[in-house]
Design a protein that fits this description.
3 helices
Length: 89
């Protein structure tokens, strides 16, 4: 009986610790959008910490990664096309 109570207590304590740490890092990242700082680095770190325990955070992180990847890919393609146009002139 005591072992089961300790196990549940550990799981709850871990979930609370992850929630507090991850939401703090995420909040700092959101503040960095307005204030100077590396918000685009800190926000995914906060989501990754929250993703340890929460499925919604994993989904948001996956969506954020996909969005960033698509934007960088589109930018690379545009730069390559502009370079090809300059070289062919």
């Amino acid at each position: 009986m005591i072992e089961k109570t300790l196990h549940v207590t550990y799981k709850v304590a871990r979930r609370i610790a992850v929630a507090v740490l991850g939401s703090t890092v995420l909040a700092i990242g959101i503040v960095m959008i307005i204030a100077p700082g590396p918000a685009l680095i800190v926000i995914p770190i906060g989501l990754a910490i929250l993703g340890i325990e929460f499925a919604w955070a994993r989904l948001w992180l996956k969506h954020l990664r996909r969005t960033i990847s698509n934007n960088f890919g589109n930018g690379r393609a545009k730069r390559a096309e502009q370079h090809r146009e300059r070289v062919s002139r």
